[in-house]
Amino acid sequence: MTELPGIVITGASGRMGQMLIKTVMASEKCKLVGVVEREGHDWVGRDIGEAMGGTAIGVHVSDDALEAFAKAQAVIDFTAPKATLAFAALAAQARCVHVIGTTGMTDDDLHELSHAAHHATIIRAGNMSLGVNLLTKLTKMVAAALDDDYDIEVIEAHHNRKVDAPSGTALMLGEAAAEGRGVSLNDVRDSGRDGITGARKKGDIGFTAIRGGDIIGEHDVLFAGEGERIILRHVASDRSLFAKGALKAALWGQGKRPGEYDMMDVLGL
User: Fold this and answer.
1) What is the pLDDT of residues 157-210, one digit of tens each?
2) Where does NAD(+) bind (predicted)?
3) CATH code: domain of residue 210
4) Is 29 a catalytic residue?
5) How many domains does the chain have?
6) For residue 250, which of 145, 124, 64 has the smallest C-alpha distance?
7) For the purposes of burial, counting CB atoms within 10 Å of the CB of 100, is it exposed (0-12), middle (13-18) or buried (19 or more)?
8) Is 253 annotated as a binding residue?
9) Is 102 found in the same domain as 172?
10) How do residues 37-93 score in pLDDT, each as one tens digit?
């Protein structure tokens, strides 16, 4: 029998990290072989099962990412840009698939990731859910069908602890809209309005970010024309859908050539 692929989860103590750990442990298609936390974290050295409030499972939290990655076939990483870049270099060194759900990355960060992709399989997406990726495809199609007489606004809502705005998913949707129109998002992006801003510039793609409570993730793409509005919407009601999508990506990436992939590749969209 072929041995199940081993998965390492980074940022083990975070809400997404714990959800990923539970998802991997519940899967019959892989096994949890390591979890990573930053140096000095209270969980380092503890059994992850006990650290999460359950029973011991024989996997201990480590602050040595390379050692953990060396035992794995895939790493799932929802941390922060600086940490993700460091993990990318180590995942490339360990020759394991690197699934990245980290948001808030700059163009320079993405350029650095592309170097790691020369030696590793990297699957990165602003959102790992099937529904959001379908929404992204639909957004590109609608933007291509409508001219710039229709204003485009991406409206997103998340919990009050999210640190970046617009969300990675909102930017992914904005990129799709820009691609549909054949323009660069950097040239038409409007992310902040306050005070006397003047009239909206024709062709701009606007972003509105809402932060409050425990909202998991809601995204609307509004196409507003004279006399009508078209609204495409996705609402996430369970954070586990992101973890399931990330695990699907990690399994899909097994045996793939080094390079950069996204969830559209994973889902065949």
Assistant:
1) 999 999 889 998 999 999 999 999 999 999 999 998 889 999 999 999 999 999
2) 11-16, 37, 101-103, 125-128
3) 3.30.360.10
4) no
5) 2
6) 124
7) buried
8) no
9) no
10) 999 999 999 999 999 999 999 999 999 999 999 999 999 999 999 999 999 999 999
Residue 178 lies in a domain: yes
Selecting among 158, 219, 244, 248, the annotated active-site residue is 158
Amino acid at residue number 259: G
User: Alpha-carbon distance 63 to 85, whole Å?
Assistant: 16
Q: Are residues 116 and 12 in the same domain?
A: yes
Mean pLDDT of 148-152: 97
pLDDT recorded at residue 104:
86
162 in catalytic set = yes
Please say whether the beta carbons of 178 and 184 come within 8 A.
yes
Both 11 and 141 in one domain: the answer is no
Do 247 and 209 belong to one domain?
Answer: no
State yes or no: 41 annotated in a binding site.
Answer: no
Q: How confident is the model at residue 247 (pLDDT cuts 50, 70, 90)?
A: very high
Write down the catalytic residue from 119, 137, 162, 256. Answer: 162
What CATH number is given to the structural domain containing 48? Answer: 3.40.50.720
Q: CA quadruple 70, 71, 74, 80: dihedral positive or negative? A: negative
Q: Check whether 1 has a pLDDT greater than 60.
A: no
Tell me whether residue 211 is annotated as binding: no
Q: Please answer whether residues 143 and 154 qualify as being in contact, where contact means their C-beta atoms are separated by less than 8 angstroms.
A: no
143 among annotated binding-site residues: no
DSSP H helices, the chain, are 15-26, 48-51, 65-69, 81-94, 107-116, 130-145, 168-181, 185-188, 240-252, 263-267
Residue with tokens 């909102």: 170
The residue range of the domain holding 48 is 6-124+239-267
